[in-house]
Amino acid sequence: MSLFRVKGSEIKGVAAAVPGTEIHNRDYEYISPADRELLIKTTGIEQRHIALNGETTGDLCFAAANRLIDALNWERSEIDLVIFVSQSPDHFLPATSIILQNRLGLPKTTAAFDIMLGCSGYVYGLSAAAAMMSTGGFRRGLLLVGDVSSAGVNIKDKSTYPLFGDCGTATALEYNRDYEMFFNLQSDGGGKDSIIMPHGGLRHPITADSLIEKEYEPGVIRHQRNLWLNGMDVFNFSVREAPQNATALLDYCELSVADVDLFVMHQANLLMNETIRKKLKIDSSKVPYTLKNYGNTSSASIPLTLVEHLREPVVPNKRILLSSFGVGLSWGSCYLETGNWIIPETVKI
Amino acid sequence: MLEPGSLKPEVKYRDIPDWSSMYALIIVAFCETEYNVAVTGEDLRKCETVTDLHSLVQSRVGKA
Fold first, then answer.
1. Does residue B8 sit within a domain?
2. I need a labelling partner for A324 at 20 to 30 A (CA). Which of A37, A231, A237, B8 fits?
3. A61 is annotated as an active-site residue
4. What is the mean pLDDT of residues A104-132?
5. Hey, of A28, A275, A276, A279, which one would you mutate to test binding to chain B, going by the most B CBs within 10 A of its CB?
């Protein structure tokens, strides 16, 4: 079991940035008006912010990080860790974290590296950042998490296109000897085909054939460089594993569901998330959503939901359970408590 | 759309006008929350009628 606690680093603030362009699912012309309403009702997604003007994940995280650094009044010279988590980096190489070290004006004493994860990425990234910060060898760290999923989906694929929105986030961490976070991380590569972009890596380099579109079922047209999503398999996986994982973490923390003040899930879709919530028997008043206005923002969905839900001044010592699940298959949860977090309003670029 | 009360046990649910994969997900979610029973895509492909689905769920209730 990957159940562990990290003592020695705390979150100081969270910020998010989205592209300024809003796309509404009621305007999605590839399905009938009745199907659009069913889609919106079932997924909870009315609109999404989409990077139509070439904004990259790095650009969005850059905007979020700048906003957060300014809001915190941090000296950039005091930041010495940058971790970037995404499945849609700016380049195959070099790592986007390193490019952002330079763009953000951080010193060359900064340790910077990428983690390639999607929906589960925030919890994984937070565990890595917290563990490094807890050594005491770093003063201040940035966890930059986001995705431009719209770059991978085919507009003619109703099973993916209406779901995903783009977002980049920044989470600020500082060394704090007494602060604790708890994690439970899991993975199952046996489910790799459930959410996959088949071509583009070394297993299947891009050829002319990669971009040939094919209709796999009515309303599902895509090519091999697009995101493929087996909605049923992902649904079965998520509602089976996420509640078990979160329950095991609460047991580890010697807490019950009733002790949790806020349960922030990866924002997949309303049907799936509500099924998980009901299985865990968590009251809906404790479960915030950003699906309606932002859609499924992949790795950014948990920090975006924190930003949208927690307004300043953030009440300290609120008990938060985070739960993330998706592509990999990869999933995990984190238990932590709020501090005097700085949370600027979501930036639109 | 189906009129309320008109869904009979022998109905082949995939033949209902406007049936889509979204309804399959809604059925699976319903089985999870109401009966704590997992129904997979493979299970659904083996079921044709409402009765088939009912039998499947009934055979798994309480065995999670």
1. no
2. A37
3. no
4. 98
5. A275
Q: Do B33 and A275 touch (CB under 8 A)?
A: yes
Residues of A in contact with B38 (CB under 8 A): 236, 239-240
Q: Is residue B4 part of a domain?
A: no
pLDDT at B64 over 80: no
Domain of B33, in residue numbers: 13-60
Q: Please, which residues 32-61 of chain B have a Cβ atom closer than 8 Å to chain A?
A: 32-33, 36, 38, 40-41, 44
How many distinct structural domains can be found in chain B?
Answer: 1
* Contact of B39 with A246, CB cutoff 8 Å: no
Pick from A38, A217, A232: which is nearest to B41 by CB?
A232
Which residues lie closer than 8 Å to B47 by C-beta, 6 or more apart?
B53, B56
Q: What is the pLDDT of residue B11?
A: 83
- Across the range A65-83, mean pLDDT stands at 98
Domains of chain A: 1-349 (3.40.47.10)
Say if B1 falls within a structural domain: no
Scanning A39-58 for CB atoms below 8 A from B yields 39, 42
Are the C-beta atoms of A14 and A172 separated by less than 8 Å?
yes
Pairing of strands A347-348, A319-326: unpaired
Task: Select from A266, A332, A269 the least CA-distant residue to A295.
Answer: A269
pLDDT at residue B21 is higher than 90: no
Cβ-based contacts under 8 A for chains A and B: 48
Mark yes or no for CB contact A236/B41 under 8 Å: yes
Q: What percent of chain A has pLDDT over 70?
A: 100
Q: What is the ipTM of this complex?
A: 0.90
Q: Do B22 and A39 touch (CB under 8 A)?
A: yes
- How far from chain centre, in Å, is Cα A289? 13
Mean predicted confidence (pLDDT) in A62-86: 98
| Contact call for residues A234 and A326 (beta carbons, < 8 A) | yes
B7 in contact with A, Cβ within 8 Å: no
Nearest residue on chain A to B19, alpha-carbon basis: A35
Asked if the model's pLDDT at residue A313 lies above 80, the reply is yes
Cβ(A87)–Cβ(A300) below 8 Å: no
The pLDDT assigned to A311 comes to 79
| Mean pLDDT, chain B, whole residue set | 87
Rounded to whole angstroms, how far apart are CA atoms A165 and A142?
23
Could you tell me which residues are beta bridge partners of residue A117? Answer: none
